[in-house]
Structures are given as C-alpha cells and as structure tokens.
Structure prediction request, 297 residues.
Amino acid sequence: MGKIALDVERALTLRKKTGAPGRTIPTPLAQGAGWSVEDVICTSGPTDRPFEEQHRWVSVAVVVSGTFEYRASAARELMTPGSLLLGNPGQFFECGHAHAAGDRCVAFRYAPEWFERLAAEAGVPRGARRFRASRVPPIKDSAAIVARASVGVSVPARESWEEIAQRVAVAAVGLSAGAPLRPGHPPAGALARTTDSVRRIERDPAAPWTLNRLAAEAALSPFHYLRTFQRVTGVTPHQFILRARLRAAALHLAANHAKVIDVASDAGFQDLSNFNHSFRAEFGVAPRAYRKAVGRR
Prediction:
C-alpha cells in the first residue's frame, strides 16, 4: 500500500479510536485568482448517511485512493482511483460509501468565468463548456494528469499547481465530451462486488491478479465478472490493474532514486522492456525522463 492510501488508513484508524462520525478533511494546497486545489481525505463509511450538496464552482476531483458512489443528475457512478469526478456550478449531488469506508481526492475548483475563459482559449466550443457527464473513468487519456496530481500530494513536484490546475481543467472538459452517458443506477450487488475488487487491487496492485482470480473472489463467472466490472468502472479489469501499476511506478520514480528495473518489479512488471513500453505509452515519456521532469530536485 502506497503513501497516498496509508494516509487514508491513518485517518480511518483515528476515526475508529475516537468514535467520531465520518467527515471530509480538506487541506489547501494552492489557490489563485479564480481557482483553488485541495487535498481531501474522507473518512465516511457505510454507517454514515449521505446528504445533498451543491457545486458552487466548476469542480474536478481526481480520485487518488479509495472508492465512493457519486450521484449527480440522473447518473450514479462508482468513483475509483484514476477517475475524475465532474461537477457544474449549481449542480446538486451526493457522495456515499455504502460498501467501504474512506477515499482521497485532489479537488480542483474553478470560478465559472475563469473556467469559461480558459475553455475558450483552449478552443472548446461554447456549447461544450459544461460537463455532459459526471465521471471520466480511469482511461489512458487522463492518466498523465491523474499521475501528476498524485505526485503533487506525495512529493514536491517541479510543476506549479497553477499549471496542473489548467491542464486538469482543459483535459476534463475535453474528456467529458466523449464520456459515455449512462443514466440510472447499477445494481447494489454489482457496486458491492466491484468496490471490493477495486480496493483489493489498490491495496496491492503488483499482486498476480487474473480475471479468473478476481471473478472467483467476487463469486461470479469470468464472463459475468468482466461485464460487471466494466459496466461499473468504465474500464476492464486488465486496464484498471495496468493503470494502478503505472501510477504506483510514477509515484515511486518521483519519490526516490531507485533503479528503474526495481521500480518496474515493485509495480508488478516482470519484464523491463514491457514496463518501459507501457510507461511511455501511458505518459508519453520514458521512466527516466518522467523522473527528471517531476521528481525531487
């Protein structure tokens, strides 16, 4: 389990000791004229009742640990590590933890006029500057910004939060336009099984996960498990595991000076050439170049 998830576990342990109700613990990271970013740890769980909230600004939350259900408009989505939560100003929403406790997000908020101006400068058409979906799943196109946000809350990053905030905003509005719209609610059983799988993978992404093993642990056939996982998360189990391993490797590269071959092995890659190829395909640069760009000075 990495540092990001360990911080969540410590917060959950403290809650258990004190008997306090679940809550969100925001830590401001940076802010400027029209934008802000916070590191938000939530300790809510199945015994905490969700309540309705409202997005005041344009909101993009990068989920870096844990799972929770996000209901906005007609959609209810399971948020998993690597996904983006999207919210438009004035939109009502609920977040719940029906099947497991705790999560962590890097929450970016933008004043509507700031976001509108940035979207216009980025060439986004006027009619496409509001999010049409409530979630972007953990896909390849968002992998780089998810990794940068994860690194930012783990180790000192060379990039400024202002630059990261702009990249997140532009990426989110673009990816939202292509995100699938799936109104309705996944069955409770599907949410419970997928939540359990996601948290198992998050605890040890380097483990030898296979479709048969995950399906057996979920008490489903491989065929039905694959369909269930993809329906709930938006990606296949293989894609989810691969991205979890690559994010772990990116954090490892940024945090210390371990050999690349050791970083690859620790992340679950047994072949260095496969790791190098997968890393470059996901983040656009080789592992050593990534370390040089975002690692410790």
DSSP finds eleven helices and ten strands in the chain. The chain has two domains: 3-178, 188-294.
